[in-house]
Write a structure and sequence with these properties.
Shape: globular
Strand content: 25-35%
Distance between the termini: 35 Å
Radius of gyration: 22 Å
Helix content: 25-40%
CATH architecture of the largest domain: 3-Layer(aba) Sandwich
Number of strands: 18
Length: 376
């Protein structure tokens, strides 16, 4: 599935710019850790955490990746072509050639699944799952909670685990109907899951941030008890690096469900610092009312001292406000940030990923800044 790139290897022309530019920008900005995974899994090459890996070109039959060559740790079967400018190139071959029926997105996800399985890591799963709505109510002023009966293999202790739901209201709608054919899809996080003591059924909360007249918010509030929901993809959030070290968590309303789950199950003996941004001050109650893990519950005033709130407004520069809040929290110099997890808008995440990586000198593995939503 992979080979050292050779200018004569492929006779394929690169995909047209219009077919790849959005993909390349997205992956290069937000998924360099996955590209490094491809190099390790398919090119037998372990890259150090501080390397930058990018998609340099996209062909119908694969991706051309480029990585800096500092501190390459070669595995036994490693083969790599060293270029004169200090860049290593790797050609990662798709399972199927992209054409009218095979999409670039599907081939990328396939690479991710195969690479993750090969290296023993959790990965996206493309599979249909069904949930039955039990109830729905507001868990906070702007967070609507769907209580659902979930599949038997639903993860009970994985913060940030998300599902790509099809918002056709009810999967019993005819497949020939207009509503079914639209296939409007949104990712939503599994806030919490548990096994009911009486029925042994797996149940869960799916929390949706309500902010005006949006497709997702309208869908969540419209479904009734007994409605069957369909998801077509699982997405396991990347949180393993938070198991040790001083962690910084950043969230807004869309990622508060992930942070709430993290705090309820926190085992790291070092308490995290949490920066939470909301558009409504009352929304902070969503985190303030959770039941902390035993580890955090033993810390006096954790919620008062370690959860820092920023009230968002059009007049403020949010990344600047976040960095300022971090500086204030760390001003006595007694705390050194070693790990970061955050999920915000695409624009804010891009700025903060670069700033915080430099500020705290973090490796690719320890600096996780996700995009949970986009303005367009």
């Amino acid at each position: 599935m992979s080979q050292v790139f050779d200018q004569h290897y492929t006779d394929k022309m690169p995909l047209p710019m219009v077919a790849k530019i959005k993909f390349m920008n997205h992956v290069n900005d937000e998924h360099q850790d996955e590209l490094a995974l491809f190099v390790e899994a398919f090119a037998d090459t372990k890259l150090s955490n501080d390397m930058a890996v990018v998609v340099a070109e996209v062909y119908s039959n694969g991706l051309l990746l480029e990585a800096s060559v500092q501190n390459v740790e070669a595995l036994p079967n490693h083969k790599v072509e060293m270029l004169s400018d200090g860049i290593s190139q790797f050609f990662i071959e798709f399972e199927n050639v992209i054409d009218e029926t095979i999409t670039l997105k599907s081939q990328y996800i396939n690479l991710l699944q195969v690479a993750s399985k090969k290296l023993g890591k959790l990965a996206i799963k493309q599979q249909e799952r069904y949930f039955t709505v039990i109830d729905g109510y507001y868990a906070s002023p702007n967070m609507f909670r769907l209580v659902v009966a979930a599949p038997a293999d639903t993860p009970l202790n994985h913060a940030g685990y998300a599902y790509l739901f099809e918002m056709n209201t009810d999967v019993s709608i005819s497949h020939n109907s207009a509503a079914a054919s639209e296939k409007l899809q949104r990712y939503y996080t599994l806030r919490k899951a548990w096994q009911d003591a009486e029925t042994q059924q797996i149940q869960g909360w799916v929390d949706i941030y309500i902010h005006g007249d949006t497709s997702g918010g309208n869908w969540a509030r419209a479904v009734q008890a007994g409605t069957q929901l369909k998801s077509v993809r699982d997405y396991p959030e990347r949180i393993a690096h938070l198991n040790d070290g001083q962690c910084l968590l950043l969230c807004d309303e869309t990622s508060m469900p992930t942070v709430a789950n993290l705090l309820e199950n926190w085992q790291n003996p070092i308490a995290p610092i949490v920066i939470v941004m909301t558009n409504d001050g009352a929304e902070l109650s969503y985190l303030q009312e959770i039941e902390l893990s035993q580890t955090l519950a033993e810390i006096n005033s954790f919620k008062q001292d370690n959860i820092v709130h920023i009230l968002n407004a059009p007049s403020i520069d949010l990344p600047d406000a976040i960095v300022s809040a971090i500086d204030t929290r760390l001003e006595d110099g007694s705390i050194l940030i070693e790990k970061v997890w955050g999920a915000l808008s695409a624009a804010d995440a891009k700025i903060l990923r670069r700033q915080l990586k430099t500020k705290f000198d973090l490796s690719r593995q320890d600096m996780v800044m996700k995009v949970y939503w986009r303005t367009s």
